[in-house]
Amino acid sequence: MSAAAFSRQVARSALRTSTRNTFSTSTRHAFRQSGRRFYSSEPPKPSSGSGPALGALAGLAVVGGGYYFYQSQNGSPKVFNPTKEDYQKVYNEIAGRLEEKDDYDDGSYGPVLVRLAWHASGTYDKETKTGGSNGATMRFAPEGDHGANAGLKHARDFLEPVKAKFPWITYSDLWTLAGACAIQEMQGPVVPWRPGRADKEAAACTPDGRLPDAAQGTKHLRDIFYRMGFNDQEIVALAGAHALGRCHTDRSGFDGPWTFSPTVLTNDYYTLLLDEKWHIRKWDGPKQYEDKTKGLMMLPADYALIEDKAMKPWVQKYAKDNDLFFKDFSEVVVKLFELGVPFKEGSERMTFKPTNA
Ligand code: HEM
């Protein structure tokens, strides 16, 4: 087992002994320490391209809220009506791959899977009812090539073997299910999920510019997130996802993680935002903030949350209360992943058992 895998396992077993939604200070501290150790300074290895076989997608559709119509490998049409158990199998497969493939970034593909699900969903426009997770149009250029989606091919490629094993699931359902799974497997709250998304063709790609620009402030964040149908509290709750993962100079141009435990969801994003002294980093890159250890960062869009009179109180609430953050984060992520999806009336959300519970 690699040092990274070992340190992650130690941290996880420590976390397992505490209640799922509450972190004791000592547990957090222990995790931060191990989190520091398994930082990787190497850039992610480029993964080999394996896009979807367009032929196989041609007949892929969701009928109503759960029936999938798809073409099997020998070309014959199949109809499959999956049960909750079938989705739990998909969940387990994603969780298993997350556990097994720990050679990426800080030891987990989890953060980039969350980002894939968010970028697939966050293109939604409530006026025109276009975009959103229903379609998985990021499979195609131009959307896959939008600057905001740089690096998400790693997440899409990670999910290809899962798609190959469960060909009946649409990419749109798979990506959002993977987002929910990654949040749960990174010790986050339960994220209820339901199927019903159909894949669309390239013509349904959304125009560039629907996702937020990290260099801007809260006026821009409101323009972007109100367009999806969110309010100020929901914007702040969603931003807490930045407890996870990191920025990459070869993707967004920004650099570094927001927290010391980028593969475990906590409310540390908010506590750090409030408690650390943030300075503008002196470097040959875009404007970003750094803490005094120079190990952590905040984007201008993150820092803007504590400069905004209406948003700061939510940062303070989530910093004080991890349970409140988990509750609100789960609710707002469910809403995000369902934007613009025409679910069958009465379709029920499922909850999946985390593998680390
Ligand atoms: C509030 C507006 C937001 C802005 C301006 C923003 C911007 C960014 C940027 C610039 C990165 C770095 C990308 C890279 O270089 O790899 C990033 C990463 C990330 N974002 Fe956001 N984001 C926002 C909201 C969200 C939301 C709503 C979520 C999920 C609910 C999210 C989840 C993530 C995650 C998990 C990563 C880390 C990805 C990785 O480690 O590869 N972000 N974000």
From TrEMBL:
Protein's cellular compartments: Mitochondrion intermembrane space; Mitochondrion matrix
Entry annotated with the keyword Iron: yes
Catalytic reaction equation(s): 2 Fe(II)-[cytochrome c] + H2O2 + 2 H(+) = 2 Fe(III)-[cytochrome c] + 2 H2O
Classification of source organism: Eukaryota, Fungi, Dikarya, Ascomycota, Pezizomycotina
Cited CDD domains: ascorbate_peroxidase (cd00691)
Major localization listed first in the record, in broad terms: mitochondrion
Domain Plant heme peroxidase family profile stretches: 97-356
Region annotated Disordered, chain positions: 17-51
PROSITE patterns linked: PEROXIDASE_1, PEROXIDASE_2, PEROXIDASE_4
Organism expressing this protein natively: Apiospora arundinis
Protein name: Peroxidase
Subunit structure: Forms a one-to-one complex with cytochrome c.
Any one GO MF annotation of this record: peroxidase activity
EC number, as in UniProt: 1.11.1.-
Biological role stated in the UniProt entry: Destroys radicals which are normally produced within the cells and which are toxic to biological systems.
InterPro entries: Ccp1-like, Haem_peroxidase, Haem_peroxidase_sf, Peroxidase_I, Peroxidases_AS, Peroxidases_heam-ligand_BS
